[in-house]
Model the fold of this input.
Amino acid sequence: MKRKNASLLGNIFMGLGLVVMVGGVGYSILNQLPQFNFPQYFAHGAVLSIFVGAVLWLAGARVGGHEQIGDRYWWVRHFDKRCRRDDNHRHS
Done:
């Protein structure tokens, strides 16, 4: 798959995951209000949709290449000597 198509597909998955997560959270909140009278068994599906949305988000990040960028910055922040604080060498 070309980089442009992979990035587009990753962004679509990330957007879909965000929508599913927000929808699940919204339904879970609305289910707590008594005036809406939603069926209780859909509440379990709403909680499950939060996790499904997170998995879609992570899959989109993996396909789109966003995960590698975050790994690179984490590596730089934790293991690059220029970006790491040295507790033994303090400036006065």
The helical segments are 3-31, 41-64, 66-79. The chain has a mean pLDDT of 81. The two ends are 54 Å apart (CA to CA). The CA atoms of residues 10 and 68 lie 13 Å apart.
